[in-house]
Design a protein that fits this description.
single chain, about 250 residues, Metallo-beta-lactamase, Chain A, seven-stranded mixed beta sheet, about 30% strand
């Protein structure tokens, strides 16, 4: 089996050329949106055209949320309203958000100013929030998801997403952390952020990694001025489809 991921955005928080970094996992039992940045509805439409895969927002019912910085979470308002209005007209299930407990605890604080409908609505009216554990895997749409906290200044995490024996690593936003990279290295392909910032990972740090991990790594969360020639690590592009097959098997709890 394979993990298939459509790359929806590859930009950093201040990018003027790209959508915020996010992807859709085409899991066996549904689609999983990894992070929900600004203009996510437009981003999904563009990625659908580029990839040939239908990524309609109303066809996505699960969101893996790494953290609450705006370039990863601002799209929750539009996504939540769209699903809520659809349910009012035709019924159906609430959107499921899967997040660390510390992230879930502040979701409504973030969303209430624009979504509380004069005090008559709550987080549960829009979202079914599922709290992720860093000690046990979660089953989401037929995929197995492992979660690890990252060092980013606020509660944040990365993921390893497995379908069968194929596994995709997703760094999330993080300072350069060799221990996090060692954890991600169990995956067959690792999507890792790179941004020149004290709370992100500079490309020089990734360039110093062993060739074996650089070969399986793909870059995301890039600034507009990023020069792909500065590294031998492949850069992702919006609309690209990652097909991740298992290359080395490892215990799911590793």
């Amino acid at each position: 089996m394979t993990v298939r991921a459509v790359i929806v955005g590859v930009g950093s928080a201040l990018s003027e050329r790209h959508f915020g970094s996010c992807a859709v996992i085409l899991a066996p039992q549904g689609k999983i949106l990894v992070d929900c940045p600004d203009s996510v509805l437009h981003a999904l439409r563009c990625a659908s055209k580029l990839s040939g895969h239908s990524l309609a927002a109303l066809g996505i019912h699960d969101i893996l949320l790494t953290h609450l910085h705006g370039d990863h979470a601002n799209g929750l308002e539009a996504f939540g309203w769209k699903h809520w209005l659809h349910r009012k007209g035709s019924g159906g299930e609430r959107l499921r958000i899967h997040a660390l407990p510390a992230v879930a605890a502040r979701l409504w604080e973030r969303l209430a100013p624009s979504m509380d409908q004069g005090g008559s609505a709550s987080l549960a009216d829009y979202f079914d929030v599922r709290r992720l554990s860093t000690t046990a895997p979660a089953s989401i749409c037929g995929a197995t998801v492992l979660t690890r906290e990252t060092d980013h200044g606020i509660p944040s995490c990365g993921f390893r997403i497995r379908v069968g024996e194929a596994e995709l690593g997703w760094s999330g936003d993080t300072r350069f952390d060799p221990n996090h990279i060692d954890w991600l290295a169990h995956a067959d392909v690792v999507v890792h952020e790179t941004t020149e910032s004290p709370v992100h990972t500079p490309i020089e740090c990734l360039n110093a990694l062993a060739p074996a991990i650089r070969r399986k790594m793909r870059l995301i969360h890039m600034e507009d001025a990023f020069d792909p020639a500065a590294t031998d690590i492949a850069c992702l592009a919006e609309g690209m489809v990652l097909e991740v097959a298992d290359t080395a098997r490892s215990p799911i709890g590793a």
